[in-house]
Every structure is written in structure tokens, then in C-alpha cells.
Amino acid sequence: MITRERRIAGYRALAELGVDVTKEMAAEGLTAAESPAKAAACARLDNLIQDREFFRRLLAGDADATIEFESLNRALAD
């Protein structure tokens, strides 16, 4: 019998390869912990949402703000 931990590890490995396993995991009552990188990106984006100066720069086309914003969103999409 495969343990819960090994099953989650298998799903996590598939997810890292780009396979969407959310439906299968939900069907088994499993959830995967959010990766530290994704949690950090979410926290940084939450901080930037409150920063009016950042969004002013972003809307003005500032390259650094645009790169950071796009990078954070890519990290959350993975």
C-alpha cells in the first residue's frame, strides 16, 4: 500500500513536470503544501499591492517594476 506521503510526493513530482494533478488530488482528498517560492512571491505581491508608488511606476512602464511584477505573477502561475 502506498502511504499518503508517497502519494503526495508522486503528485508533486508530476506537478513539477507541468502535469495538472489538482482534480486527481482532490478526488483522493489530498492537498499539496504550497512551495516556499510561491509563498514568498505571494507575500511580495501582497506588499506591492499596498505600494502606490510601485503601481505608479508599473503603469508608467518602468522596466524594473514591470520585470518584478511579471516575475512574481509567473511564480504564482507555476
Mean pLDDT level: 87
Classify the helix fraction into a percent range.
over 70%
Query: Number of DSSP helices?
Result: 5
Helix and strand succession? HHHHH
Query: What is the number of beta strands?
Result: 0
Keyword list:
mainly alpha; 78 residues
Descriptive notes:
The protein has 78 residues and is mostly helical. The protein folds into 2 domains: 1-33; 36-77, no CATH class. It is 72% helix and 0% strand. The protein is built from 5 helices and no strands. Helix 4 (52-59) crosses helix 5. The longest helix has 15 residues, at 63-77. The protein is elongated. The two termini are 30 Å apart.
In short:
By secondary structure, the chain is mainly α. It is 72% helix and 0% strand. It has two domains: 1-33; 36-77, no CATH class.
Write the layout of secondary structure elements.
Layout: H1 4-16, H2 22-27, H3 36-49, H4 52-59, H5 63-77
Helix pairs in contact: 3-5, 4-5
